[in-house]
Amino acid sequence: MPPATNGNGNGNGNGNGNGNGNGNGNGEAKEEEKKDEPPAPEPYALQRLLSTTRFGSWLDDKGIKVDGWVQGNYTASTANRNNLPITFNDRGDFWQFNQNYFRVAKEVDASKDEFQLGFRTDWILPGTDARFSIGRGLWDDQLKPAGRNGALPNYYPIDLFQVYTEAFMPNLGPKGSTVRVGRFATHVGYELVQGAETPFLSRSYMFQYNPFTHSGVWAITPLNDTWTVSNGFSVGTDNFFGDPTNRFTYLGQLKWAPKDGKTTAAFNVVLNDNNYQTNQAFPLYNVYNAVITHNLTDKLTYVADATFSHMDNTPLPAGGTGSATWYGAAQYLIYKHCDNLTSNLRVELFEDTKGVRTGFKGLYTDVAYNLAYSPVRSLIMRPGVRYDHNNTSRPFEGKADLFTATMDVIIRY
């Protein structure tokens, strides 16, 4: 299978799908809890602007929030032009407009012991990142050549990254359940597609070559103040309803998060028949993932993220078909120097045993560091460096090593 150069069936994960807490007790107890909560942050510019209009007042009355961000980056690289199999900032010495991310959401409040309805829709309008997040069966024709005369695929496509309705059902489970139906970000892994809410511009290999989204049903059920179990069913990984690639897929998560503890842990799975669909040139694979987060101090956080994935009957770059595995582990240190400055460090090992995901077999080493600086709340600037090495192949334009230096800028609105 060739290197993943678009989001069709390759993918990656993340985004939400993790549970949150629930209310209990009587109204007086809830009032006590609210007094201890920090004040809600001020809305960003778009929500503030809308609030001065009649339409904005209607949105406020309905509890509907509107926000987003724009993100762009410049990556200097030892590659001449192409940083693949690194995605998202895949172009060397080139400015990319990664995301114009826009979302509208009405969230349910799981602390209220009452039935509620909500929804969410997230768009990349447009952005180069959409080339990797677009799912099969949902506007994926944007990734095909635009004409007969050697025209290139659309470099700035649009992606409806998430679109779902959700309901909070207070009588489903010990503390109620939140049930989502639609296309939603995967529960697998630590990093996210959302550029403003993930620590690095350049994502880990585990993120890049595992699920991004699922289309189906996802139910989040807190068992108590510590344990949450989530279950769901989808039509596959990174595909949409009604596409010929649809296959029954089980989604699961078990999360341990003590209310006043410093450590959280989650075990995640994606399970299906894990056979490559030859007639559709589309991968179906199983994923097993664990994420552990620990606050070492008030300023220093440690994260461990490990994933194992496998697929059968897949075309091999060396020829023929067979089984393939890809797996890895990444460790993160996140240090908050002050309110507006954070350091992020990632060290990752990722093995693509047959080269079916990246196009080149071997053990990849990824070391990345950046600074995230926010002089004002709506602006994030992230200078960073990254070093990559493959111990077996030469994936980076014929070289085993790649060094990149990046600067990405995010403006939230």
From TrEMBL:
Listed Gly residues bias regions: 8-26
Region described as Disordered: 1-42
Ranges of compositional bias, category Basic and acidic residues: 28-38
Protein name: Porin
Species per Swiss-Prot/TrEMBL record: Gemmata obscuriglobus
